[in-house]
Structure formats: structure tokens, C-alpha cells
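Feature request, filed as a ticket because there's no other form

It would be nice if the structure record came with a short human-readable summary line next to the C-alpha cells. Right now we just get the raw output. Example of a typical job, pasted below so the devs can see what we mean:
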Amino acid sequence: MTTVAYATTVVSQVVDELNWDSRIDAARIHVSNVGGVIRLTGKVHNFAEKNAAQEAAHRVRGVVDVANDIEVVPIGTRTDADIAHAVRHALEWDVYLPHEQIQSTVSDAWVTLDGTVPYYFQVEDAAGAIRRLAGVRGVTNKIRVDPDALVPVAVHEAIRTALQRQAGREAERIDVEVVGGELTLSGRVRSWAEKCAIVGAAGHVPGILAVNDRVRIDP
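Raw output as currently delivered:
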């Protein structure tokens, strides 16, 4: 198969995956291949759908990089104050988040999160709690892990053990580097789901301030 034919096939499969995902109105999204990068454009009504389209594209075998240029155009007249109240409620209702340690700012329907949390996974979970709120156009996540909350553990060994336990043989293909509490994961996995499992496992280890995800998908 030629390079052009392969690129066309991947685009077609991404379109099929978008149509398959019931969270997405695929008719509103255009898919193209730009130098090996899958580019998504178009307009959707909420930030959750934009993220769902990105996830769908990554699920397709052969897709490594995705440029998500979809524009969010919310329906209705939710004010920034309405969204700010919804953000606070979402944070308060999530039992895994120390909501009192997280601040939010809403400007033109764009939410910025700030504050400190004990674990890195809570940084990602806080943003995830906001992405599905109606009216939100985007999220900027400035939450940090509180260094004073870190538990002194053998971080490298703890991560390696967690990856072996949760990701099995895939963990053998992953390189782990920890410098000053900052974790870098690199290597190759066979699918987007395996990549998410590996990166997610690392976020639960005490002693991690940030995670640099350099894991590549190699079907």
C-alpha cells in the first residue's frame, strides 16, 4: 500500500470511528491527514464532544498524533457566573478531589483551574470533572501537586511495580525516569487504551509532581 493510500485509509477509519461513537455528531467534524498527523476540525456544541472526538481518533490503529482544532460553540446563554457555580459543584461532588484546595476562574466560558493537590492523578481528575459541563469551551489546568504532601517512597520502583501489576507485558516496553519528582515515561505500546492505562497508573504514586508522557503507539 502506498503512503497516500495508507493515509486515506486511516482518515476513512477515523471517520468511521467518529460515526460509531454515539457521543459525537460526526457530520460536524472534518478529518484530514497533515503530514502523518490526524487533524480534526469543525464545530461542536460542548467541550466533552471535542474530547470524545479526540479519543475516538486515537482508538484507530495506526493513529499516533492528533491535532484537535475543533471549535466549541455552546448552545444557550450560560453566563460565566453560571459556569463558575457548576464548576464548584462538580469539584465538591467528586469524592476523590480535595475541592477546598482548588480554585477556578471562568472567562468567556473558558475555565482555568489552579491550586495544589496531594496526588498527580487528582490534577487530571479535576480537569475531567469540568470537561462535561454544559457551556464550557475549554479548560486550562494549572493545578500542581503539593510538595509538602508527598510521601517519601522509592518512586522508581513503585512505578515499575504498578506498571507490571496493571499493564502486564506492556510494562516491559516502557522506560521510567524520575528526576526531582518529575516522571518521564517513554517507549511503545500497541494501543491508546494501553497508553492510558500506563500513564494513569503512574499518577497514583506518591512522590510524583508531574508526568511527561512520551509513550508512543506502535500497533
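Something like this underneath would help us a lot:
DSSP finds six helices and eleven strands in the chain.
The chain has a mean pLDDT of 86.
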